[in-house]
Design a protein that fits this description.
One of its GO terms (molecular function) is isomerase activity. It is built from 12 helices and 10 strands. It has helices at about 1-20, 85-100, 120-130, 135-160, 175-180, 210-215, 220-230, 235-240, 250-265, 270-285, 285-300, 305-315; strands at about 50, 60-65, 65-70, 105-110, 165, 170, 185-190, 190-195, 230-235, 245.
């Protein structure tokens, strides 16, 4: 007990030091009773359309405070990915990345399935009749086209806001490319996953072959799925690590995804977004390089007022959801 009391006293002294130390202009660190943030909207209310997000293939709504819901919205086409989709996802997530109020995103599919993958009917001319006067020019055109399609999902990964994929029904072909670019994956019991590209005569080229091995950490299983295009059902997806939780039905899964997004969005956005950026850097670099990057990152981020607010909340035994963190 004495050790706990001493530690609490040291923390209090540290907070007082931070409050009396010189601060940068505009950084207001005052030790006072913590105010509550505005109450979150409940999912019972009809979600409102997010401003500046009007698309043909997507529906974007403000699900709760600080949370956006991006819904694949081609119900009649089983959310197949047409030309508009490949363009609009980039536009959508670039806006989300710059949206200071947004702190977490949930992606789901409308209707009976997450996505049937690429819309071959709509995309056939781009893929089967590429522009160019000769083989070299046709190849350069195709390379630019493929790179633009890759950016459609890479933009999700680049977005500093955590992105939760909520999958039900089929997640086929490019649907797998999409979800492997997300940070967290939940699915319903009826979900299944197919790396479908070999069945249409091509190698997957917009993210699955690069991200899936890192997601599940089992190269043998990745090879099996990619070579055969067989279905991976929900329980196998959970066991392999592709998803972290399985729910009995879509609505239960969505409730859980929004609850998770709400918990994430209650934390310091400086801490959460910095964590995502450092996790992605560490995935692609050595431990030594990643530690150096983290040190460089935190030499500035440790100066945030969010540390004081979080420590004060802990001392006052308050939940972080009742603390107001400034938008980032």
């Amino acid at each position: 007990m004495a050790a706990v009391t001493a530690a609490s006293r040291r923390l209090g002294d540290l907070l007082k030091w931070r409050l009396t130390a010189p601060t940068h202009r505009g950084l207001n660190l005052s030790l006072r009773p913590m105010g509550s943030s505005a109450p979150s909207e409940t999912r019972g209310a009809a979600p409102s359309e997010a401003p500046d997000h009007s698309y043909e293939s997507l529906r974007v709504t403000a699900a709760e405070r600080h949370i956006l819901h991006v819904e694949l919205n081609r119900l009649e086409k089983r959310n197949a990915m047409n030309r508009a989709f490949w363009r609009e996802m980039v536009e959508c997530f670039k806006k989300i990345a710059q949206d200071a109020d947004c702190r977490a995103v949930v992606i789901s599919g409308s209707g009976k399935m997450f996505s049937a993958g690429i819309d071959l009917v709509d995309m056939a001319s781009d893929l089967l009749q590429p522009q160019g006067e000769d083989a070299a020019r046709i190849s350069w055109h195709l390379r630019r086209l493929i790179a633009s399609y890759q950016e459609t999902f890479s933009v999700i990964e680049k977005c500093p806001k955590p992105v939760i994929a909520a999958i039900h029904g089929g997640c086929i072909g490019a649907g797998v490319d999409l979800i492997t670019a997300c940070d967290i994956r939940y699915c319903a019991q009826d979900a299944f996953f197919q790396v479908k590209e070999v069945d249409i005569g091509l190698a997957a080229d917009v993210g699955t072959l690069q991200r899936l091995p890192r997601v599940i950490g089992n190269q043998s299983l990745v090879n099996e799925l990619a070579f055969t295009a067989r279905k991976m059902m929900a329980d196998e997806a959970l066991g392999s690590g592709l998803v972290s939780r399985v729910f009995p039905e879509k609505e239960v899964m969505l409730d859980a995804a929004f609850a998770l997004a709400a918990e994430i969005s209650s934390k310091s956005p400086v801490a959460v977004q910095g964590t995502k950026i450092n996790l992605l850097y560490s995935r692609d670099h050595s431990v030594a390089d990643s530690l150096n990057y983290a040190a460089s990152w935190n030499m500035s981020m440790l100066q945030t007022e969010d540390i004081v607010k979080s420590a004060q909340a802990a001392m006052e035994k308050k939940e972080l959801k009742n603390i107001t963190f400034s938008n980032l």
